[in-house]
Every structure is written in C-alpha cells, then in structure tokens.
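Researcher: Next entry in the queue.
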Amino acid sequence: MIFFSRQTAQGEQRPRRKVGCLGGCLIFFAVYFICSAILGWIMGDAFSSSSVELKDQTVYHLQLKGTLVEQAQEDLPWASMLSSMPYSSYANQDNVGLDQILSNIRLAKNNDKILGIWLDGGQLSMAPASAKAIRDALLDFKSSGKWVIASAKNYGQTNYYLASVADCICLDPTGEVSWNGLSAQKMYFTRLMEKIGVQMQIVKVGTFKSAVEPFFRTSMSEADKQQTMQYVDGIWSEYKQAVGASRHMTEAQLDGLADRFMGLQSAQAQLEAGLVDTIVYGQDMDSLLRVYTGTKDYHLLTTAKLINVKRPDSKAKDKVAVLYLAGEISDEDGDGIVGKEVIKTFKKIAKDDDVKALVLRVNSPGGSADASEQIWRAIQKIKADSIPVVVSMGDYAASGGYYISCGADYIYAEPTTLTGSIGIFGTLPNASKLRDKIGLDIDGVKTNKYSDLEGNILFNGLNAEELAMMQTMVERGYDLFTSRCAEGRHVSQDYIKSIGEGRVWLGNKGKEIGIVDEIGNIDDAIAKAVELAGLECYKLAYYPEVKDPYDELLKLFDDTTEEEKLMLKIKDFCSQPRIMARMDDIIIR
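Model: Structure for this entry, 589 residues:
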C-alpha cells in the first residue's frame, strides 16, 4: 500500500489490564461521577438556551492557552467535572477552534457593543500560519478604530508574534518574552535501531525527501539542511517584518534582541528593549481594562461564550460549502481526514442543489495515497457539476495534503504554510539481527518465487532484485503523484518533477513556482469561490458536522506517556511493509 506523508505516528489499542479491587473501585467512582454529571446536564443545561445576549460595554476576552485546532468541537457537558478528577488527562485537552476565533473577531469588529479585544496569555500552541491568520484578523479589527491589548506571564515566540499587533502589550513583573530566533530539530533513530537489531532498507524518489533520514543517518543531509534552513528563515523573516512594523523596530534590532536570548532577560529589560509597553501583574489587569473601556462595569466574553451570540441569519438560498480537511489522511478510520467519511460528505454536498461553490480548508501533512486519490477523484466529480472548488491551505498542505489540493480551481496559502513535499519513499524494516539475538528461527514452504517476499522483508531482508522491484513501485507512485499535480496546475509533468523531489516549500515560495495561486486566508478563498460562482447573495454551510461529545468521552482517559508515544512511533514504522511519501517530523522552536 502506498502512503503519503503522516506527521505523527498513529496510536494503537493498548493491551487490556487486569482489574483488581482498587481498579474496580476506581471504575465504580468514575461511572458514578460521570452518571451524576450527565444527569446534572440533562436537568440543567439541556433545557436552557445556549444563546448568549450581548451587552453594552463588552470586551472579547480571547484567552491564548491550550491547543489551536482548525474546527472547534462541542464542549463536553461534564468537562468541569472531568478536569478535576485524579489522573484525568482532560485538563491537557483544552482545544481552541481557529474557526471560532476568526468568527468572533469579525463579529467584534462590526458590533458596536464590543469595545475591544483582550489577548490574555501567551502559551497557545499553534503553528505560524494559523497565528498569522489570527493576527491578520486582529489588524482588520483595529481598522474599525477599536483597540486590542495583550497581557501574559510569559509570551511564547509565536504568541508574541501574534500579540505584537496590540495597542498595549503588558508583561508580568516576573515574566518573559521568548524572542530568541527559530531553530528546527529532528530525532534520529539509526543507532537505537542498530542496538535492537533492526535495519531500515530504504527506497525513495526525491533528493529532498528526507523523512527517511532518521532511520539511516545520525544527522541532517546537506539537502535537508538546505530546505529546512530555507523555510525556517522564511518564517523568521515573516516574524521580524510583522513585529517590526507593529513595534516600530528594524529587523536588525530584532535580530540583535534575539541574539541576547530575551527569554532569559528580566521584565524590565523587555520593557527597555521595546518588546512590551508596561509591566503589570495579571491580577491588576482590571485597572487597565477600566481605562480602555471607560467604565468599571464592562463585561468579558470568552471565545466559547461569544460564539453563542446570535449572528444575523442569511435569507439567501445559494450556498457556499466550506469543508474542513484537517489531520492525517487515512482510509477508513482515524481522527483526521478519513477518506471513506470524506467521500460521503462530498456526495452529500453534491446532492444539495443549493450549493454553488465549495471551499476546502486543508491542513494536512498527508497520509494514505489511496484515500488521497479517492478524495482527488471526488473533487473532480464536484467540478464536473460546474461547482468551482477553491482551496485554503492552513499550517500544512504537504505530500498527501498537496495531493488533495492540487486539483482545485484556485489555491490560497498563508506565507508560512508548509506545502509541496511531492515525493515517495519506502521504509522496509529488516529485523534479521534481532531475530538472531533472541534465537528465533523461521522456516516454511512456498508455491512461487516471491510467495514469501512480505515475510522476508521483516525477518530476512530483501535481496537486490527484490529491492529493485520495490524501487519500481515507488517510482510508479511518484509518476502518478506528479501527473495529478501537473494536470491540476496546468503545467508539464517534467516541471512538477523539477520542483518536486520531495522538497518542502513555504506558501510564498509556492506562489512563485506555481503550486499556489495566491497568498491569502480562508476569507479570501471564500470570496474567490463566490466570484467564480458568480454569486451576489449567499450563505455559508460548514462541513463536517461537529462530533457528538459523547463519542469523545473515552478518549479523555488516555494516559499514554510521551515515552510510550515515541516507542509507538518507532513501532509504527517497523510494524508492516509500506511505501510512503511523508513530510519530516521536525520541531520548530
């Protein structure tokens, strides 16, 4: 089976453990508390209106903590109870929807009852492209004449890039601003694999397809360093330009501050450097909010509350469908883009005669090639019905993520979107040394020359002839991949191969080489879809539907440690023979 890139290893069902007396008691109390929470929700919240009334003198309290996701999911009715239970991991699953934040900022700009926005905190986990989308929305908000203030105990670097748009940046007296420059690192498993007796046999197409390097190298290749440095430099340049424009500082000044490692400097040093405007305790922000609002009777509304403020209903019949495609691409199961389910959604959209245009919000490092091909085919069928398709790329649209994007009529990307990565590779584990170490012998019979090939991959390794066959398979997959890209971008396949080779590009460079049409956000993509469909009045219809919170309940008790996740990732690479095109697992700080 051919796979396109996957950002992280997919977890697996863990072995069941025997439940003793203590375990039985814990289960009893867990069931008791959950049933109590459900009963309380049924008796209370289920019969109350979720609509929030917007009052005069309101401030949008945008809390920058947790993890940013593309599409928000419904809050669990028992969330507060679960977060306080011993050993529950729910407290670490504080997801914030990018879609809700952008919608709330648009509402805040156009509603006279909202006076300004308070960016509270600096530890929201997000990628640069998503941070820019929020930052641009805040700049648009400020164009209305309203204010933005920011406060935090500590600002992460990407969070500071976002907060720099504020009219006033506040820092706690004991806090810090992480303005240190960017680095990119990856883990190499070669020596670890040697110690356990497993060798990776590699087949690939693409000089820059470096995702396999951690399994046969101990450091970056020159090609990988070149491409990684290019996009890290591009992201850092965006940070410096944006922060410099907002803080009235030159890029040279900002580089100088980064070389001082401002994350270890005092709050006073941050103030003197011009990174912040004032030093104030978080508990004293009320005084500053009174100054900005002009009253002590202001009202704060969080993202979760403000999203429930009623929006004007559109009377238009025509629809623009917005389909979120986020996460790893899989065939029939998974938490990301599940091909089987996505195809159902496409069919549902196609049956709706009121849908006149389709916007795909793609945020994916890739996954299953077959699922990618099926999604590509579904897009072509939608286009055949004279429905224009426009892609809005998020943080990633690489490898399989680019595969499902390339067939659209028009493609938008953020300047710091990671895209491209058009290449194929195979990692074929050879555990023959491990087999010898543990004294495992294997014997059998076969009817044909290659009947035992799959078994030999793991236990004996492949010979030169068999590796050549695998290489041919990889090249065939690369040829199909590049042909889809060439057809979608209206260029020759040779050109796609010249910019492919597994190379990762930033969105702004993607525009230069033609794999992206324009730099812009999801609002720009919607506007383009409206233009291509020739619509004057329309309403938006969002897909997929928000997941039922009850289906998510059991996921909250996952107690997998980081060490176990790392080992599962290695096992995922070794567990079965497969061909992949994958973007690097690389950490940018």
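Model: The longest strand covers residues 168-177.
Researcher: Noted, moving on.
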